[in-house]
Design goal:
The protein has 297 residues and is an alpha/beta fold. It has 2 domains: 2-112 and 228-296, 3-Layer(bba) Sandwich (FAD/NAD(P)-binding domain), CATH 3.50.50; 128-224, FAD/NAD(P)-binding domain (3-Layer(bba) Sandwich). The chain has helices spanning 13-23, 56-69, 132-135, 151-160, 178-184, 232-237, 274-296; strands at residues 2-3, 6-9, 29-32, 44-45, 54-55, 73-75, 79-85, 88-93, 98-101, 103-106, 110-112, 128-129, 143-147, 166-171, 189-193, 197-202, 206-211, 216-218, 221-224, 228-230, 261-263. Bound molecules: flavin-adenine dinucleotide.
């Protein structure tokens, strides 16, 4: 059994930033998670404070080294179970480690809902994107497609129209708010309903998207805006219930409704952006550290 003060679940932007801030407050910090599974690994960052251009992987590797210098311990493993225990929480990992901590920070990110069509995975990062906020700027004066029925897809189409030469919004049935729908009925957005993508075509990069009704649209980018799944099951084991958007609600100190459990990053909801993840990571790390220190004193 490993004993620590704070267990951070998730080795992405939010978890690593939480580790940096918590460890600097001289509490014992363990981070569990695989950095290779962080959303940052596939990101190219151009909109983060002070960073003109960097890969997410570079930033993540530097962040992990930084946290280790301040004393955080990293285990590249998955958490498979968590429960309340005497004086805190007991976490079990896939290599059957048991780690006891006084506070827990949930920083498991999200996994975006997939279309599950040919070409999607192979061209992810090469024209296929799950984040218009992140990648719209790479498609200046190029034709793109947005896929999704809800308001997230409408917001993406509205943002992309300011960059792209043409925006095809493909929706099986439109479920976006009436206000957004009204705004989206403008050039260069063309709304195609009653159909869905059959495959994404491209060699090294996206060249076209083929629809179930046989139409083929020549595009350079495909934005899949179909929402996201949170790592809700683990949170629910602790009694932290997801809100109506499927994310975890936190207060200004990144506290969840369960005492001693904090959350930060994509798992707490939109915007799914690096700046928000590290901002919340900072707050969650500091809050968890002061929670633990108060108990010590
Ligand atoms: C392709 C792409 C491009 C992007 N581009 C940009 C951009 O340009 N600008 C920008 O600001 N943002 C961008 N983002 C978003 C940004 O990467 C995320 O907002 C940020 O990484 C969120 O940090 P996080 O720590 O909440 O989640 P993540 O970084 O995704 O980290 C989650 C961590 O939790 C771990 N985890 C999950 N479940 C478990 C478990 N059971 N046990 C242990 N660990 C677990 C994962 O393995 C991972 O280590 C992009 C995202 C993608 C996918």
């Amino acid at each position: 059994m490993i004993e620590t003060d704070i267990i951070i679940i998730g080795c992405g932007a939010a978890g690593v930033q939480a580790a940096i801030h918590a460890a600097r407050k001289k509490v014992r910090v363990v981070v569990i998670g695989k950095s290779d599974n962080s959303a940052l690994i596939k990101a190219h960052i151009e909109n983060y404070f002070g960073v003109v251009s960097a890969t997410g992987q570079e930033l993540l590797n530097m962040g992990i080294k930084q946290a280790e210098v301040f004393g955080a311990t990293f285990y590249s493993e998955e958490v498979i179970g968590i429960e309340g225990a005497d004086g805190g929480f007991l976490v079990k990992t896939d290599s059957l480690k048991e780690i006891l901590g006084k506070a827990v920070v949930l920083a498991m990110g999200i996994s975006r809902n997939k279309l599950n069509v040919d070409g999607e995975e192979a061209l992810h990062g090469f024209g296929v994107s799950y984040c218009a906020n992140c990648d719209a700027g790479f498609f200046k004066k190029k034709p793109v497609a947005v896929v999704g029925d809800g308001s997230a897809a409408a917001v993406a189409a509205l943002l992309l129209k300011d960059y792209a030469s043409k925006v095809y919004w493909i929706a099986e049935s439109l479920r976006a708010s009436p206000e957004l729908l009204k705004n989206a009925k403008v050039t260069p957005i063309e709304i195609l309903t009653g159909t869905k993508p059959a495959r994404i075509i491209g060699d090294k990069t996206v060249k076209a998207i083929e629809l179930k009704d046989g139409r083929k649209l020549e595009v350079d980018g495909v934005f899949i805006e179909m929402g996201a799944k949170g790592a809700a099951e683990l949170a629910m084991e602790l009694g932290v219930l997801p809100n109506e958007n499927g994310s975890l609600s936190v207060d200004r100190n990144c506290r969840t409704e369960v005492e001693g459990v904090f959350a930060c990053g994509d798992i707490t909801g939109q915007p799914w952006q690096l700046a928000k993840a590290v901002g919340e990571g900072c707050v969650a790390g500091l809050s968890a550290a002061s929670y633990v220190r108060r108990e010590k004193e």
